[in-house]
What we know:
Number of helices: 5
Shape: elongated
Order of helices and strands: HHHHH
Helix content: 40-55%
Number of strands: 0
Number of domains: 2
Strand content: under 5%
Distance between the termini: 42 Å
Structural class: mainly alpha
Amino acid sequence: MKIETARYISNHYHKYFNVKENIAYRHINSLFKLNGEPESSSRYKIYKRKGWITTDKEALELIKNGETEFFINTASRILKEHREEIFLNNCPNCQKLARTPKARQCRHCGNKWFEDHID
């Protein structure tokens, strides 16, 4: 699976994350927002106190090989278990993945596939 597809599934179908994946995802996002702040910083301590930075061994195991592998593994599981609920919105022209499940304009080739409106 391409990382673009994995991110798409993770962003738009995160309701299918399990408990540990949710913890790992929140941890990844929190570290990104902290932008390398040291553990001694007040923001880091707040994030940790609120549970946004985790010490959960199972959740940390999911991200031990980096966020790319985490997103690909999680999206693969979600797609396997919830195939009927997942809509991969591919452009009818170039077949590349649109930005969102509801998008009607391709960010790659510019094609538009809006429904015709009857006046």
